[in-house]
Amino acid sequence: MRWRCPTFTRSQRSTRRINGARDLTVDTPLQVDAFVTPGTMLRSARLQTELSEREVEDLLNLMPGYVGILERDDYQALRSPAFARGYVRAYGQLMKLEETELLRAFDEQREHWEKEKKRVETRPLQLQRTGTGVVIGLVILLAMVFALWFWQGQDEVIPASVQPNEVQAPTAEAPQVNYED
């Protein structure tokens, strides 16, 4: 349940056409229903005490700009959004606001924000796509490995026509010379 300001009702005189024929003046009640967030509660309390944002930051030892962020209910803009509840509580205590209503409004707003965040963050699962640079790099690496393997293979295999001839014993005998003659 969200904390709401009291509802104010007032009458407004309006003129409208019925069936395009004539004007009719009707008194219709207007309902003004103002939704109050923790930030607006804190801001209105600060303005009633006539303190500036900087003075509140100094009193609470907050970083510059935090009071404005809290008053805008922009808790994700804080350096540490996890501490937002504590900041709101401390600010509320300084302004002498009722802590339970302030924190209830904060928790409801946080729940609403988390629902919106979940709705935005859910995306369909996509398969990982490998970048073109990685693919090109792998192809070049594979080509280099293949070229190195081919080049080293050339040194090990020697064709038969290039092999050195083995020294063979002479098959023909040398002619014998007869020295007796």
Automatic annotation (TrEMBL):
Membrane listed as a keyword: yes
Leader sequence segment: none
Transmembrane segments: 133-151
Record keyword ATP-binding present: no
A molecular function GO annotation: DNA binding
Record's keyword terms, sorted: Membrane, Transmembrane, Transmembrane helix
Matching PANTHER family: CYTOSKELETON PROTEIN RODZ, PTHR34475
Protein name: Helix-turn-helix domain-containing protein
Organism: Pseudohalioglobus lutimaris
